[in-house]
Design a protein that fits this description.
With 123 residues, the chain is mainly beta. The chain has strands at 2-7, 10-13, 18-26, 31-37, 44-49, 56-58, 66-71, 76-81, 90-97, 112-113, 117-122. The strands form two sheets. Strands 2, 4, 5, 6, 9, 10 and 11 form a seven-stranded mixed sheet that branches. A four-stranded antiparallel sheet has the order 1-3-8-7, with no helix packed on it.
């Protein structure tokens, strides 16, 4: 089992950058992913990273601006967001599962979720 806690959100101006953090406890070498969800919208997959950090998977629309990474010595997964846009405003969630499969992005396959961290981007 693994527990997940996100942090790093806030109110920022368009064009700036944020680094979100996801601290894992318990069994920490899990496939970890970032999602976001805005009011009235479906939860959206953003990026995933394997437990070792060797493999990553990105939603096509965020490639080039979003970077997922991990530091297993700190049991932490990061999401770096560059050139923030107002449309990035959302609640960002970190989630974990035991297996790596870059072809399976289904929300239901991630059993361990954090509480979410709010990112608000002003124009």
């Amino acid at each position: 089992q693994v527990q997940v806690v996100e942090s790093g959100g806030g109110l920022v101006q368009a064009g700036s950058s944020l680094r979100l953090s996801c601290v894992l406890s318990g069994r920490t070498w899990y496939t970890t992913a970032w999602f976001r969800q805005s009011p009235g919208k479906e939860r959206e997959f953003l990026a995933a990273i394997s437990g070792s950090g060797e493999s990553t998977d990105y939603r096509e629309s965020v490639k080039g601006r979003f970077t997922i990474s991990r530091d297993n010595a700190k049991a932490t997964v990061y999401l770096q967001i560059d050139n923030l846009k107002p449309d990035d405003t959302s609640v960002y969630f970190c989630a974990a599962r035991s297996h790596w499969n870059s072809r399976d992005r289904r929300t239901a396959t991630f059993r361990n979720w954090g509480q979410g961290t709010q990112v608000t981007v002003s124009s």
